[in-house]
Automatic annotation (TrEMBL), chains A, B:
Belongs to the PlsX family. PANTHER family: FATTY ACID/PHOSPHOLIPID SYNTHESIS PROTEIN PLSX (PTHR30100), PHOSPHATE ACYLTRANSFERASE (PTHR30100:SF1). One of its GO terms (molecular function) is phosphate:acyl-[acyl carrier protein] acyltransferase activity. NCBIfam families: plsX. This is Phosphate acyltransferase. Pathway: Lipid metabolism; phospholipid metabolism. Its EC number is 2.3.1.274. It comes from the Bacteria. Keywords: Acyltransferase, Cytoplasm, Lipid biosynthesis, Lipid metabolism, Phospholipid biosynthesis, Phospholipid metabolism, Transferase.
């Protein structure tokens, strides 16, 4: 298995990316894994030696350009054809790697995923999700968190299917409970979109729909998979991220609130494209990179995107 | 000034309502105030004597019915014409009281406000807001928080005006900064609604528009007044409420997180109707009732709804 990693993406690249690779190999080295590292060769080689990363586990692919965090995604991908992100997607599209990871320019990663990869047959639009730390210790999934600011009810129904498959195969949740983010508990509540999505979710036999979930239910055990359009989802995610910052500012050290440090989850996978793409937070440190490799390995090993494809076609 | 209070609404009525009245009169008694208390006369009279509430400050209006928390609002208001909520709105509509407060059935309060009172001239739709505790110690305002799940851009622009007036006159914020809840910082970001609302807010000379605010900005000082449709606003509010519950569950005792106890803010005023209506949380205790009286007194004293009317007509 070849996992591709953009070593130049993120605020602390390439050093934290190198440390992340080292951490992954130390902690949860997967036997058949080869890491394909995209980036500035002299810089990377020096760091990989410095951090004593086993040579048989990686291969450096030299790239000469970097897409900065604030560059226009489409323009940058078109012009910087030898950037770590562009080359990574070329490798992914042509099968030279099985998954691609970057903590770089999120827009460029999304555009790269959408335009260099095929959308899974039957999927209306790919989606991005976020891990949600649940109070009972389990791991929830919220989607969409920003790729689709306006949605049709059918999209929410597909998010439910894709999220359920991901929750099952990557988080190991058996028969994940799916909730529709809404403003009240009862059927019939909500805006036009939520009202229209509810019956689709209710009739969808591919998922375990448990009804509406409210803002107060995001962190409880009412649902494992929570679906909404990307506007509300993005606001929820960024608000949840800020809860961790608040706890830090307030010098509150609490095991549950510490799980709001979204860096520990690594990154967010793009669901609905044919190959695994994982987008990391700009502030990713070693643990985030290590976790992204871990999720990528799991996604390849479980063929979760193949499972998404099967499930979508059953709706 | 006559402030009307539904003594039978809320999970802990009438005893907490009586205690709240007592608390208000002890702590911030306003000279010209007369409290008009709607509810079961024998029960109230006994409690008012028991809690030693000064007789010259209140008058009990006997009502014989109660609208329960789970009753259908429109049906209940129509059938229970002698309920504390119905009679309260009759008093408000006919000028016998200057403001009406209840921690009872929220739907019935909204229906009552919308149908027994006139909408302020020029207001497309009334709105409900929520106090947001800011990290810098100041008090933010978020609106709409659930009355209008789907909105037009013009409504968001009006929420901005109504919220600014409320923030200025009730919270004492000078020239409140208005932010549009969105998924990114830059103009042009967002769903169709946010994209269309941005230019209206930018051109609105009646407000101090500071641009987009994201989920991570809800609790920081980027904006004093934050506007969105009621779907996202309701999810934000209920999520914020759950942060307090989480802190309690986790036994975290932190002064800032304690401000997420929304009960301390009393209730949410309906903005855009011609007279002050304040809706309390079902779980309201004495402090919440006391604070609701305080806000009602301020709303009448400052003629905040008259100011809303003037401001709306300037858009």
């Amino acid at each position: 298995m070849n996992i591709g990693l953009d070593m130049m993406g993120g605020d602390f690249a390439p050093i934290e990316a190198v440390k992340g690779v080292k951490q992954y190999l130390l902690e949860q080295n997967f036997e058949g894994l080869s890491l394909i590292l995209f980036g500035d060769e002299p810089q990377l080689t020096a760091l990989l030696i410095e951090y004593d990363v086993p040579k048989d586990k990686y291969k450096v692919v030299a790239t000469t350009q970097i897409i900065d965090m604030n560059e226009h995604p489409t323009k940058a991908l078109k012009e910087k054809t030898n950037s770590s992100i562009s080359v990574g997607f070329q490798y992914l599209a042509t099968g030279k790697i099985d998954a691609f990871i970057s903590a770089g320019n999120t827009g460029a990663m999304l555009v790269g995923a959408m335009f260099s990869l095929k959308t899974v047959e039957g999927v209306l639009r790919p989606t991005i999700s976020s891990v949600i730390p649940k109070q009972d210790g389990s791991t929830g999934l919220l989607l969409d968190v920003g790729l689709n600011a306006d949605c049709k009810p059918e999209q929410l129904n597909q998010f439910a299917v894709m999220g359920s498959v991901f929750s099952k195969y990557i988080f190991g949740v058996d028969d994940p409970k799916v909730g529709l983010i809404n403003v009240g508990e009862e059927e019939g509540k909500g805006n036009i979109l939520a009202q229209a999505a509810y019956p689709l979710l209710k009739e969808n036999s591919a998922i375990n729909f448990v009804g509406n979930v409210e803002g107060r239910d995001v962190f409880n055990d009412k649902a494992d998979v929570m679906v909404c359009e990307g506007f509300t989802g993005n606001v929820i995610l960024k608000l949840a991220e800020s809860v961790y910052d608040i706890a830090q500012n307030q010098k509150v050290d609490n095991p549950y609130l510490n799980r709001f440090n979204f860096e520990i989850y690594g990154g967010t996978p793009v669901l609905g494209v044919e190959k695994p793409v994982i987008i990391g937070h700009g502030i990713s440190h070693a643990t985030a990179f290590s976790n992204m490799v871990d999720v990528a390995v799991k996604m390849v090993n479980t063929d979760v995107l193949g499972k998404v494809k099967e499930a979508i076609q059953k709706i």
